[in-house]
Amino acid sequence: SYKPELFFLTRNWSARPNWMQGFFVQSGVQHESNGRGEEFSRSTNTFYFKPTLIFFDAGSELGLQISPKLLAYFNNDDDTNPDLADYRGNVALEVKFGKADGIVSSTQLRFAEQGLSVQTDLSYPLSKLLKNNFDLFFQIQYCNMLAESLINYKERDQSIRIGFSIVR
Predict the structure, then answer these.
(1) N or C, fewer C-beta in 10 Å, the chain?
(2) Does the predicted TM-score (pTM) go above 0.70?
(3) Secondary structure class of 86 (helix, strand, coil)
(4) First to last CA, the chain
(5) Is 155 a residue whose pLDDT tops 90?
(6) Do 64 and 55 contact (CB within 8 A), yes or no?
(7) What is the 3-state secondary structure (H, E, C) of 98-116?
(8) Given this model, what pLDDT does residue 68 score?
(9) Residue 42: CB partners within 8 Å, gap ≥ 6?
(10) Considering Cα of 2, then 91, then 147, then 120, what sign does the dihedral take?
(11) 156: nearest Cα among 141, 145, 166
(12) Are β-strands 5-9 and 104-112 bridged in parallel, bridged antiparallel, or unpaired?
């Protein structure tokens, strides 16, 4: 899927409790389409609101990020995916835990009427091996998701992926 997005991300709010190192709010609109034509074309659009809370322990250098996300669908293609929200849901939760210069675990949960979807990623920075010249991460991902694709959104997909990423 192609997912162009326009969003606004606040600065770290200074009016947060002292025990919280970060509080940000992101909101935006995202278009998603599968890039296919005619009867195989699928698309959807969402508005979303996503607050992010960040906790960090300087002694252990461990961080925790919690990001709930609320979604609203609009201009959805009612002929080809009228009940997409029943499979993708309107609520998601992302939780990240780890060290910036070490392993980070990231889990995304989507809560939908037709069932829970899970995506878990483990990533490790390869910059140490590359003499800190280039940020690159080794990544392993497990997915057990409904509506991972727009064309077969009613099917549950399970996969394990291994690769490299430039962001995490």
Answers:
(1) N
(2) yes
(3) helix
(4) 19
(5) yes
(6) yes
(7) ECCCCCEEEEEEEEECCEE
(8) 98
(9) 33, 34, 36, 77, 80, 81, 150, 151, 153
(10) positive
(11) 145
(12) unpaired
Q: Check whether 118 has a pLDDT greater than 90.
A: yes
The residues, ordered by sequence, that sit 6+ positions from 133 with a Cβ below 8 Å of its Cβ are: 127
Contacts of 114-123 with C-beta under 8 Å, sequence gap 24+, read 114/86, 114/87, 114/146, 114/154, 115/87, 115/146, 115/156, 117/88, 117/89, 117/144, 117/145, 117/146, 117/147, 117/148, 118/142, 118/143, 118/144, 118/145, 119/143, 119/144, 119/145, 121/168, 123/165, 123/168
Structure tokens, 67: 């990001």
Token pair 């409904």 is found at: 146
**DSSP alpha helix (H) spans, the chain:** 84-88
> What are the CA-CA distances from residue 79 to residues 8, 39, 93 (Å)?
31, 10, 29
Measure the CA angle with vertex 108, ends 105 and 110; round to 5°. 165
Contact call for residues 107 and 143 (beta carbons, < 8 A):
no
Least Cα distance to 123 among 104, 109, 142, 141 occurs for: 104
Q: Answer for the pair 142, 117: CB distance below 8 angstroms, yes or no.
A: no
Q: Is 68 exposed, middle or buried (0-12, 13-18, 19+ CB in 10 A)?
A: middle
If one compares 105 and 129, the residue with the highest pLDDT of the two is 105
